[in-house]
Amino acid sequence: MRKAVSFLAVAALTFCMAGSGLAADTIKVGFVDTYTGPATTFTNDVLDGFKMAAEKINSKGGVLGRKITWVTRDDKFKPDIGLTMAKELILNENVDLLAGTINSATALAVSDLCKKEKVPFLVTFSKSDKITGEKGNRYVFSMNENTEMAGRATAKALAKKKFVKYWIAGDDYEYGHAIANGVWNHLKTLNPKVRLLGQSWWKVGETDFTPYITQILAAKPDFVIVATGGGGMVNFQKAAQSTGFNRKVPFYQHTAIELSTLMPQGKNAPEGVYGTANYLFYYPNTKENRAFVEEFRKAYNRYPKSGALYGYMTAQFIAKSFEKAGKVDREKFIDAMAGMTLPSPVGPMEMRACDHQVVLPMYFGVTKKSPKYDFLIASDVVSIPGKEYMPSCAEIAKARAK
Amino acid sequence: MRRSAAPLLLFLLPAALLALPHVLPRFHTYVAAIVLLTGLLATSLNLAIGYTGLYQFGHAVFYGVGAYGTALMLTRSGMPAPVAFLVGPLAAAALSLVMGVICIRLSKLYFGMLQISLGSLVWAVVYRWYSFTGGDDGIHGIPVPDAISSPKGSYYFTLAVTALCVFAMYRIVRSPFGKVIQGIRDNPVRAAAIGVDVKSHQLTALVIAGFFGGVAGSLFVVVENSVFPDMMFWTFSLEVLIMCLLGGMYTFFGPIVGASAIVLLRVFASIHTRYWGLILGTILTLVIIFLPDGVLGVFIRRARPKEPADA
Amino acid sequence: MGFAANLFSTGTLSQILVGLSRTTILFIVSSGMSLILGVLRIPNVAHGSLYMIGAFAAWSVIGFLGGGLFAFLAAMIVAPMIVAAVGFVLERGFFSYLYEREHLMLLLLTFAFMLILGDLVKIVWGPEYRSVTVPDFFRGSAEIFGLPLPWYNLFLLLVGPCIAVFLWLVINRTNLGKIARAAAVDGEMVGAVGIDTGWVFAFTFVLGSFLAGLGGALIAPMVNISIGMDHSLIMETFLIVIIGGLGNMWGALLGSLIFGLTQSLGILVWPQFGIAFPYLAVVAVLVVRPRGLLSSTW
Fold it and tell me: Which of A70, A248, B263, C124 is most enclosed, with most CB atoms within 10 A?
């Protein structure tokens, strides 16, 4: 009995200590992200985009003579596990940089940890505007748009339309409200004529939208802002399609035109839905974008989604920043990355120095069937340059001073 | 074996715990702190479920309220830190009293489900009251006094508070009051018949359990500097329940053993695999089928009256 | 603001009417749980996982048969059968040996099954979203009070009462149902008169699992089928069964109605805390009637 116990104890100890290896001659990036559950639709693309770029960089000799390596940890969409895994990567795996997190709560918690540990953290999907806004710090970078940016870009596009009577609906959580507020606050200032008829909010994971759709139709709005996220995107579009909602009232969802929303629905997705997205594999039809899509398809046999762009550019920024810094030093890396502009599949992409928020275009379009693909794509795409919808550095400074 | 090992263990364990941050790397020290505070949480739950026999299904709520109470005091009020560390657990105890008064009339499964409902109400408020609690994003970067914010400092603080609380609970269980609640657990009808005020004893036990659950929450703030609404969701309540069961529900130190096992497994299995649920579920199934008294319960086979089978 | 005005607006009536389809799903799933809880006394947390498997299985069946109305209807039968088979394995393989255990142990055992089944689903179907579309037959919507009500929701409103009647018949008109009801009240007595309760219990568990699977298959066309859909449902189901009265079929129906309606009306009254209303309703019911609304078999 005793032998068995001591054997177990030793085995357990070995198990716990395993994994702590020093890697002196590589650049080690630690990813903390959700790799189980529905969020993987987005996070796998980030990782694959990153891998594709990193492998290419490594095959050309790496950065400063070192190869880029990566380790992943699954946070199961839980902030406490995410925080523990981030600590493990920093303290045990000795990673040079952290990246990842689709969960905003995790991103904010890890961002605070990284500030204390002085480790750069590149956020690759979380949409909270607090990451680089109110709670921003020297060590955190955002590689994607956030709710505030999406709101402003959408407001800009909608202000040009003739809609006056609006209705707001959405998933009743922070992301939903942030998107809705982002759009509405800026739309009001850009077009003072708009009126809000009412709002409806449903719990996250709602499956039956008919009561809300009925309520909205009864009010007869010109346009509806639907602030759904994650699984709610498809759930609402399915309801819109089956009630014919999209044919009665035009509506908008952030990421409605994105592949992650449209592809699972095939040809049955609703037409005429307005949406915004950071990336479309068929637009802009430039040489750079076509090359990126082709490379991604060759590597993974699927079309790249927004996440692929974020992950791909994360690797590029890491490589170029270390090159510019001249040595593998976290502080020098931050100084090098702030203010850097790199070419990307969607044109030049800037890492703004004042808030470490990436500046990239936003595409506004309407869903439409296409003879070329067996899913819907965006038509009438308008590209809104990053500079036009970013909160100014002064606004960021004001938010951070609070 | 147990007799001879006990004094040795009594000496070795504190020595090992005190030396730990000097021997182990920082990450493992941090995990040890999480183990300690989770052990405290599980022990506090066991006070209600193992010793009093109440189906406390929403215990994570007290943990969360303790954490949020402390976090909100530290971030929003100018009060000194010790006040914040008192407010969290006291808020948890107060909530425990209120919920106890509402639930106490119900028995077993009904008690548990009503508690989950009330707990879900608290969770919903925390989750949605964005301007006050930070909503689903939680509160981060909570300023903790310098003395206990360093890795070693937070570990020793957690160790000291956990040791103190566990000792206090041990004394409570061994006190006349502790004997009475165990009597109520084993046979409430008989206890009432010999003149024991069953309800007020149960309520007291619930408040004590809530208070120490709140202390564990405050310690979480010290170790992680963050709080999130997930901490008080019902799935976590069930996880804590599992810790008690795994270690042994009718032993005093069982829940600590269970908590250590689950926390260590979760941290180190998460590094190596994505199928954490499969592992935990399988272990749990095996324990329930083959070791119904829990891991520690097997070592300490003490005769105890069988539970009345009916709800 | 006009909360009251909100409540009495024209939308309210139709909101109640159309919101009933959500109640249908809740009822089908919770009646299965109530059955298992009432007869076998197992608080089955893994019931939500069975519901999730039902949805994934429906996706597979529809994909296998290539879509269309026939594939859809076949999936509505085959998917719950698959789930029923899983239930059979669970009951014969594990629960049948453990009926003497405390409820608490059984609850934790089913929690363990929930974790295992969740990961197994991930292994079998992968972690990505799956989606099933409503067959053409049910596409589009009817106009009621000038407002659209999808045909599929109407279909659900029809299915709900059918299931209720079917269950009532099984429980009250078949021998098996009568034995199950007797076993729920006094299992030892049923055993004493020479009836093998083991197979009655197995049948009950399989029927309960079938209902969970049916709920999952029926909801499949309306949602993103994903890992985690069990979590959001299981607690609601539990609370419905508790407020309705353990093991009481009509209680499950009543509980589903209360849960479904407080949810949609709560959001009208106070949008910010809409998610709290169903829990508030549960608390109110249990404070007034500590053992649920209708008589329990316990």
Answer: B263
Cβ–Cβ of C112/B284 closer than 8 Å? yes
CB B40 within 8 A of CB B217: no
Q: Would you call B274 and A80 a contact, using CB atoms and an 8 Å cutoff?
A: no
Q: What is the pLDDT of residues A347-381, one digit of tens each?
A: 999 999 999 999 999 999 999 999 999 999 999 99
Amino acid sitting at position B22 = H
Q: Between B31, B130, B271, which is nearest A73 by CB? A: B271
Is residue A389 within 8 Å of residue A372, measured between CB atoms?
no
- At residue A205, the pLDDT reads 76
pLDDT score for A249:
94
Nearest to C264 by CA among C58, C14, C24, C47: C14
Contact C100 B292 (CB under 8 A): no
pTM: 0.88
Q: What is the biggest distance separating any 2 CA atoms in chain A, rounded to whole angstroms?
A: 80
Regarding whether A230 and A140 lie in a shared domain, the answer is no
Angle at the Cα of C125 from the Cα atoms of C121 and C128, rounded to 5 degrees: 105
pLDDT digits (tens, 9 = 90+) for A253-303: 999 999 989 988 888 899 999 999 999 999 999 999 999 999 999 999 999
Give residue A393's identity as a one-letter amino acid code: C
Residue C218 forms part of a structural domain: yes
- Is A181 found in the same domain as A246? yes
Q: Inter-chain contact A109–B226, Cβ cutoff 8 Å?
A: yes
Specify whether A374 is located in the same domain as A339.
no
Binding-site residues on chain B for chain A (CB distance < 8 A): 25-28, 30-31, 34, 127-128, 130, 135-138, 140-141, 224-226, 228, 230-231, 264, 266-268, 270-272, 274, 276
